[in-house]
Fold each of these.
Amino acid sequence: MPTHKKIFAALDLPVLAALLGDAGLKFVDIGGRDAAFQGLVPLASLAHYYVSEPDVAEAKRLRELLPRVTPWRSVTVIDRAMASRPGEASLHLTSSPGMSSLLEPNPEVTRRYCLAHKYGVQSVVNVPAFRDKQRLD
C-alpha cells in the first residue's frame, strides 16, 4: 500500500480533510525530475500539483507518469524553467541530473556538506523560462 494511503487510513479527521479539500492547495515543484516530491504525496488527494521541468523529454515523461502514480487533484507539467524573468535562462547541468539549477553551484557549500560530486557542472544550456504567476492559476 502506498505511504500516503497508510497515513490517511489510520486517521479519521473529516473536518480537517474537508477544510483542506476546500482550500484549493497548490504545490509547486521547481525541477521535477524523477517523481513527485515524496514529502507532499500524503496530501496529494487534497492538492493540485504544478511542476516546472525544462528538460522536454523529462517533462513528457512526468506528464504521463504523475497522474498514474499519485492521486493529485490535477497535475500540470510546465516544460520551462521558473525564473526571475521570462525568456531564456542558463541551466547548469550537473553530474547528478536532479541537482541541475539555474543557479551555479557554490563549490564551497557543496564541499562542506560532502555533495560536491553531485554538483559538478557538466555543461550549461539555454532553456525557455517563465515567471508569470498566472501559469499557476
Note: The first helix runs from residue 3 to 9.
Amino acid sequence: MPKQENIDRVSALKAKLEQCSIAVTADFTGLPTNEITELRRRMRAAGIEFTVVKNTLMNLAADAAQRPQFKEIVQGPTAIAFGYDDPQAVVRALSDYLRTSRSTLALRGAVLGNGAPMSPAEVSRLATLPSRPQLLASLLGQLQAPIQRLLLVLNGPLRNLDAVLQARLRQLEATGSGG
C-alpha cells in the first residue's frame, strides 16, 4: 500500500507536468547541499520551479499525465526544472548557472510542451537561440524589407524627375540673369 505522502507527491508532479511549457532534467550527483540551495534560489527568482524527484514517483506521474516521453529523461539522481511561461528562460537560467558557477550539475534532457524528449545538445542549442522578442523583431524586419524596396523603386522616377526639373530651373535662372 503506497504512503499518502507519495500519492500526494505523484498528483502534484502530474499537475506540474500537465501545466508546464518545458521540463528540464539534470543529474545533481556530487552537488553539495549549499549549491543546490543556491540553484533553487536563482531558479525561484527567475520564476522557475526546481525540485529533486524520485524516479519511480516521476514515472508514475508521467503515466498519470499521459506524457510517457518524460520517462526517457529521468534516470539516476534527478532534479527537474519546471517552466510555465517562456521555455527558453528556463534553459537560459540553467545554462547561465552552469557557466557562472562551474557546477557539476549535468543537463540530461528536456521535454518542450507535448513534444519528443530533447538531448542535452539540443537543450544547449535552445539556450543559444535569440529570444522571442528578438525573433519577432527580425521577422518583422524581413517582412518590411520588400515593401521598403518597392517604395524606393517606385519613388525613383519621381526623384529623378524632380532632379531634372531642379537642374533645368537652375539653368534657366542662370541664363535669365546673365542676359
Note: The chain has two domains: 4-129, 130-179.
